């Protein structure tokens, strides 16, 4: 499941903006949707109107014990680092982005990948047939 952008079936562009008036944004999907969803963040950047101050963006999610955790993913400043590439940093919803410091505006962009269950099972079947095809002949000892 590797989000690749517009050429990848089931991928749609994602974007949100954090600012002094909108300090957080939550990305979530319908609980009744049985598809797998992956949010792949590509870039976080300061946009028009940003001040030369530290803008810290956090990702708020849940750990393996279902406890809420906040992890800073970007610290942007107009004069030295106005943009940060996140190289398709993958998250599973629900996830909240929060402007922990600064007034922004900060824009987050990436891809929302949707994999339908029937597609996933089809991909698994393909993986099994490829493994069968890749069986190698046993290695025989060299003749002396």
Describe this structure in words.
This protein is mainly beta and 144 residues long. Helices cover 12% and strands 46% of the residues. It contains one helix and eight strands; from the N terminus they run E-E-E-E-E-E-E-E-H.
Summarize the structure.
By secondary structure, the chain is mostly beta strands.
Mean pLDDT, rounded to whole units? 82
Tell me the strand order in the biggest sheet.
1-8-3-6
Low-confidence stretches: 1-7, 119-125
Topology, number of strands: 8
What form results from the Cα inertia axes? extended
What structural category do the secondary elements indicate? Answer: mainly beta
Compute the number of helices: 1
- Largest sheet, strands/sense/barrel: 4 strands, antiparallel
The helix content is 10-25%
What order do the helices and strands come in, and which of them pair?
Blueprint lengths: L10 E8 L5 E4 L8 E11 L8 E8 L5 E9 L6 E9 L3 E7 L4 E10 L1 H17 L11
Antiparallel strand pairs: 1-8, 2-7, 3-6, 3-8, 4-5, 4-7
Key phrases:
disordered N terminus, mainly beta, 1 helix
């Amino acid at each position: 499941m590797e989000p690749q952008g517009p050429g990848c079936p089931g991928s749609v562009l994602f974007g949100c903006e954090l600012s002094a008036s909108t300090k957080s944004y939550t990305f979530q999907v319908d609980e009744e949707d049985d598809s797998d969803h992956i949010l792949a963040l590509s870039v976080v950047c300061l946009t028009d109107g940003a001040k030369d101050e530290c803008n810290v963006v956090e990702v708020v999610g849940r750990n393996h014990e279902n406890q809420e955790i906040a992890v800073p993913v970007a610290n942007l400043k107009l004069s030295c680092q106005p943009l940060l590439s996140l190289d398709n940093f993958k998250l599973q919803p629900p996830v909240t982005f929060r402007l922990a410091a600064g007034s922004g505006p900060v824009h987050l962009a990436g891809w929302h990948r949707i994999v339908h269950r029937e597609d996933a099972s089809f991909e698994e079947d393909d993986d099994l047939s490829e493994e069968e095809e890749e069986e190698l002949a046993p290695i025989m000892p060299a003749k002396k």
